Amino acid sequence: MTNKALSDIKKGEKAEILGFECGQSLCQRLCALGLSEGKIVKKLSEIRMGGPVILQVDRAQIAIGNGMAKKIIVRKISE
Fold first, then answer.
1. Are the C-beta atoms of residues 15 and 77 closer than 8 Å to each other?
2. CA atoms of 19 and 17, how far apart (whole Å)
3. pLDDT: is 46 or 31 the higher one?
4. Cα separation of 21 and 30, whole Å?
5. 30 and 72 Cβ atoms separated by less than 8 Å
6. Could you give the 3-state DSSP secondary structure of residue 7?
7. Long-range CB contacts (< 8 A, 24+ apart) of 22-25?
8. How many helices (H) and strands (E) does the chain have?
């Protein structure tokens, strides 16, 4: 499987977070939201044209901006 940005996976797909392409402050913000390397996330929905991306992480649902989602590198996993 190829690595891709979280923004590139489709609604309903699961992926493992491999890393981040961002500065320290954004990485800390994502970590505070429960997003860290090795976590499995499921994309629940997205709003077209740069709107928020809604994810399930563990038992929580979070919304992040599309720009943030583009900086999270993931590997799609099969269920």
1. yes
2. 6
3. 31
4. 12
5. yes
6. helix
7. 22/68, 22/71
8. 2, 6
